[in-house]
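Hi, here's the filled form for the chain we discussed.

Project: internal
Contact: R.S.
Residues: 232
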Amino acid sequence: MTDKPAIVLVHGFWGGAAHWAKVIPELHRRGFASLHAVENPLTSLADDAERTRKMVRQIDGPVLLVGHSYGGAVITEAGDLPNVVGLVYVAAFAPDAGESPGQISQELPPAAFENIAPDSDGYLWIKQDKFHESFAQDLSAQESLVMAVTQKAPPGSTFGDDVTAPAWKTKPSWYQVSTADRMIHPDNERRMAERMKPRKVIELDAGHASLASQPVPVTDLIEEAALAVSAP
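And the returned structure, exactly as it came back:
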């Protein structure tokens, strides 16, 4: 068995790298020493993919990319680098070429779609009083409040940015479906997972913030992927 790969965690819309706060110590406890979490600007898919690529390029050795939510679109776009050895999707978008997260959502709208509202500058927010029920219904009210107040809103245009060459067509992948997801329809997650033919799919009885509400099984999947890509 070779050394474990570096793990790069990629957040989605309405959050930042701190959304991985429970997964990071769990990975560290299991012996993953090279851990990185990108803080993406959420200004466009091209910008976010390039920011992620810059972090990956700084790492000497194999990298496992892990994306939550819109972060799945980012790792799909940025996963073409030669040292990326695998992709893990956590309740995430996995667009095909020419597809965008917005297009996928419109095809099968999630339960909380109406709780997303634009401001006067064109940024899209989850209404604060609807954040708990929309994004993190299986977290405590206090945890959800912190997420709601600190949410990082993307410009609406980012939802329409298309993936160009999906990395899941050439890199091994793993997928976690959240069966109670209200931000990405669970059947959309299943559809995206099925077409990428991942090494493994798991379903968790969780909302969209499964990385925070169920960090142990999410880490189990990441660890399984990491060990698989480390095999001699």
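Let me know if anything looks off before we file it.
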